[in-house]
Amino acid sequence: MAVCARLCGVGQSRRCRRRQRQNQQDQGSDSDMDDEEEERIVGQRQGDVVVVEGPESGVATAGPSDACEYGSDRVNRRCYLDPTSSGPAHPQSLSELPPELLVEIFSLLPGTALPTVALVCNKFRQILNHETVWKRRCVEEFGMQKDIKKMDVGGVSSRDLYVKLLHPYRHILGLWQPDIGPYGGLLNVVMDGLFIIGWMYLPPHDPRVEDPMRRRPLFRIQMGESNKATVECMYGHKGPHKGDIQTVKKDEFSTKCNQTDHHRMPGGRQEEFRTWLEEEWGRTLEQIFHEHMQELILMKFIYTSQYDNCLTYRRIYLPPTMPSDLLRPGLFKGTYGSHGLEIVMFSFHGTSARATKLTGDPNVPAGQLTLDVDLSRPMVLPDLEQQRNIEELSRLVLGVHEEVQREAEQQAKDSCVTVRSTTEGGCGGASQEEEMESDHGACSDSCLPGPSSSTQPFTLPLGVMARNEVYPRTCRKCFYGTGLIAGHGFTSPERTPGLFVLFDEDRFGFIWLELKSFSLYSRLTDRLDHAHAPNMERFEAMLRNMQSWTS
Question: Which pLDDT band holds residue 141 (cuts at 50, 70, 90)?
Answer without folding.
Answer: confident
